[in-house]
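Let's study my pick:
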Amino acid sequence: MTTSTAPTVPAIRPRQDAATRKRRKGKSPYPYWFYLPAAVVYAALFLIPTFASFFFSFTRWSLTDFTFIGVDNFVQFFQEPALIKGLTNTFIYGAVTSVLKVVLGMLLGVLLTSQIIARGYLRSVIFFPVLLSSIGVGIVFTVLMAPSKGMINEALAAVGIDGPAWLTDPAWALLSVALVDVWKGVGLATVIYIAGIVSIPQEYFEAAKVDGASSFKSFWNITLPLARPATTTVIILSLIGGLRSFDLIWAMTKGGPGFTSDVIASVIYKQYQAGFYGLSTAGNVVLFLIVTAIVLPLSIFLNRKEVEQ
């Protein structure tokens, strides 16, 4: 007696419409009102003050009233005698601090991810200046960099070097503040690089070691290209901070001697001190546009290069 087995018919799944699949794929697992608290905070701390600044930059205002005057504030701001010097110093300051933070942050990141004694302690020491107040750091280094009795020049004199007048010599003032800025901020760059380096698979370094690659070649061909996201982050953050820097410069030199260490932010603050509130607001708008015009294209360029690699 023979038995016949009926062929198994596969279950037919209903075909999903392409639009339905796309809608389900893009649907957030959280209700939209979850985003409301963050949106309120963002609007209160950024959007509203930004739009208010743009509006008041076209007015002559005080704490009690305002008068709309059009673009007069911007015309007067660009006629400011110290503006060209402030612009030049701002770009120099931003470039110097960014380059040094990238280079030193990378080197310290490589050092503090290697097998050295007291690695955790050294990481804490490098990061500690980031936590300090910029005003406090500025006051302390103003004393340390005093031309005659400062500890830095006294230490240099002990080894036969005649130290410069760090903060009172026009040739050294801006660079001196930039070096202090690097000392204070390189810890953050180092932490970012440490995070980027430890995320690189160790198999790459082991394979390079088996192939006989030196430490420098491993750094150049593995660490440097694969830490590119960290480099991009450090460049953007350092450049934004450098272009907007004010507190450390004001604490150490107040833009002096003369106008030799003035940056745009200190020029704006002097206008505010003089009671030209609308003019200083227009200066802040100009600074915002300058930073955006530099950082946004640079960020797009660096991120595009990162994706291509």
The first helix runs from residue 18 to 26. The mean pLDDT is 87. The longest strand covers residues 59-61.
